[in-house]
């Protein structure tokens, strides 16, 4: 079973994440940030993995530490659950239309963390979520699961729709990338033999 469970405590946040990559898309999420709860539930549903998240952060300051630390721990869980990545497809690509918005996510569980984030977002709040934290979340996620991640917004106007399209396209790309590649079952999909 490709599962992981990680707990992280700092002076700013407490984060607990339990992940089952081979799940049913079930989510049990409580971060204190309603919009983030919604996005993580979408991530689990569209990625078809099970996710339990508990987080308590210094939201009296803002959502920065909470959202960034969620990205860190979720990334660490994926890295741990995938282990040596033997047999996975490795690459994922998905484009999601969300009403007027269109976003594409391309990713590679390469072992080389990198983020390209070509998305125009207004610096506003959605509930108690600072929209500018979207990029920080995905940077923390990519760097902690050692993923090369490219997120490209083709167009869009509604901030909620754009971010939702990001999370959904990310979920679908992850689902594709972690699928077992029957042609390389038991092998690492790399000419170097290691990721």
Automatic annotation (TrEMBL):
It catalyses: D-erythro-1-(imidazol-4-yl)glycerol 3-phosphate = 3-(imidazol-4-yl)-2-oxopropyl phosphate + H2O. It is found in: Cytoplasm. Gene3D superfamilies: Imidazole glycerol phosphate dehydratase, domain 1. The keyword Kinase does not apply. Keywords: Amino-acid biosynthesis, Cytoplasm, Histidine biosynthesis, Lyase. Signal peptide: none annotated. PROSITE patterns: IGP_DEHYDRATASE_1 (PS00954), IGP_DEHYDRATASE_2 (PS00955). InterPro entries: IGPD_sf, ImidazoleglycerolP_deHydtase, ImidazoleglycerP_deHydtase_CS, Ribosomal_Su5_D2-typ_SF. The keyword Lyase applies. Its EC number is 4.2.1.19. Pathway: Amino-acid biosynthesis; L-histidine biosynthesis; L-histidine from 5-phospho-alpha-D-ribose 1-diphosphate: step 6/9. Belongs to the imidazoleglycerol-phosphate dehydratase family. This is Imidazoleglycerol-phosphate dehydratase. It comes from Catenibacterium faecis.
């Amino acid at each position: 079973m490709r599962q992981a469970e990680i707990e992280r405590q700092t002076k700013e946040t407490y984060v607990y994440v339990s992940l089952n990559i081979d799940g049913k898309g079930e989510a049990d999420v409580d971060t204190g940030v309603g919009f983030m709860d919604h996005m993580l539930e979408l991530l689990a549903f569209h990625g078809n993995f099970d996710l339990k998240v508990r987080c308590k952060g210094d939201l009296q300051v803002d959502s920065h530490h909470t959202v960034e630390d969620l990205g860190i721990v979720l990334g660490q869980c994926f890295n741990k659950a995938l282990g040596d990545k033997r047999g996975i497809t490795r690459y994922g690509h998905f484009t999601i239309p969300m009403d007027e918005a269109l976003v594409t996510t391309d990713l590679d569980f390469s072992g080389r963390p990198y983020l390209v984030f070509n998305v125009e977002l207004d610096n506003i709040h959605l509930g108690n979520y600072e929209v500018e934290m979207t990029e920080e979340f995905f940077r923390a996620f990519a760097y902690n699961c050692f993923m090369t991640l490219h997120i490209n917004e083709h167009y869009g106007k509604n901030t909620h729709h754009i971010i939702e399209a990001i999370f959904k396209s990310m979920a679908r790309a992850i689902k594709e990338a972690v699928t077992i590649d029957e042609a390389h079952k038991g092998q690492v999909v790399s000419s170097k033999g290691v990721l």
